[in-house]
Design goal:
The protein contains 12 helices and 7 strands. The chain is α+β, with helices and mostly antiparallel strands and 290 residues long.
């Protein structure tokens, strides 16, 4: 056999050398999970790529993503730390978010994960739930009450006077996604000269016939020179073109309930907002979401 590895007309692996497959390190469960986070199209994936991989500060991440506030970076970093390494804050509210993120991550990616990766994530979830188990029943109820009141008031307070596009849904829809992998569910998308006031109107006007309070998932602020009606029409047109229509609404009928509801997800809304030059003013979620 010569240096080329050919002997008697056939190629043979030179002795003492490893094949390409043997030279590649085995994929660890953590690397599997990191690979999924790297490809994640949601805000958590954005934070992983920009904050964890690229090392940008919270302010730089917010600026890169055209988002008004920086708090979401800490929130997603705490979830990423829990998912990747099982690092869970002793704060019950942060641990609650970490546990929910872990459950959702496992449910959404179970088919792509190895048994070892699922075992690792399950152990990380156990740690997060352990923090919550240490909170007494009374403390837990008080924490949930404060959290719910804060969530109810936060969107309206932060969005007072903000003109743009808003999106809301209900906890039941957000918890039970129509497509777990894509994260699609029914979300209402509308426009308002004062998003805070419009949300307050929706909340006060939907009491008897709605089973739970609405949840604002996104609000996008428009610049003074942008026409809100045109923005809303463009938003709706892009949603319909992508097939994100409301399956409960007959297409041939107009001006009836459900016109502004779409089967979509937050990541797609963010992509449309970015394409239309809107700035993210608020990001929210339901306390019931797993």
């Amino acid at each position: 056999m010569d240096d080329s590895g050919i002997e008697d007309g056939e190629w043979r692996e030179p002795e003492g050398e490893l094949t390409d497959a043997e030279q590649l390190p085995a994929t660890t469960p953590r690397e599997e999970i990191a690979g999924i986070l790297r490809q994640d199209a949601s805000r958590m994936g954005d934070v992983y790529r920009l904050s964890v991989l690229d090392g940008l500060t919270s302010a730089e991440v917010a600026e890169r993503l055209n988002i008004d506030t920086q708090g979401f970076v800490f929130s997603y970093r705490s979830k990423i730390d829990a998912i990747l390494d099982g690092v869970v804050s002793s704060s019950p509210s942060v641990a609650k978010g970490a546990a929910s993120a872990l459950r959702a991550f496992i449910k959404r990616n179970r088919s792509e994960l190895s048994a070892e990766a699922i075992r690792m994530l399950t152990e990380h979830l156990r740690r997060a739930e352990g923090v919550l188990d240490e909170v007494s029943g009374a403390e837990s109820e008080e924490l949930q009450s404060r959290s719910d009141e804060h969530d109810d008031d936060l969107a309206s307070a932060d969005l007072a006077g903000v003109a743009g596009i808003y999106a809301f849904s209900y906890g039941w829809y957000l918890e039970r996604r129509a497509d777990e992998k894509m994260g699609t569910t029914l979300i209402k998308v509308g426009r308002a000269n004062d998003i805070g006031r419009r949300i307050a109107d929706h909340r006060t006007g939907a009491r008897a016939h709605m089973p739970e309070p609405l949840v604002v998932v996104r609000a996008y602020s428009a610049s003074p020179d942008q026409d809100l009606l045109r923005l809303e029409n463009a938003f709706h047109a892009l949603l319909r073109t992508a097939g994100h229509i409301n399956p409960r609404r007959p297409e041939l009928r107009r001006n009836e309930v459900g016109k502004e509801w779409f089967m979509t997800n937050e990541a797609f809304l963010d992509a449309i907002a970015s394409a239309l030059g809107l700035r993210t003013a608020y990001m929210g979620s339901s306390p019931f979401v797993e």
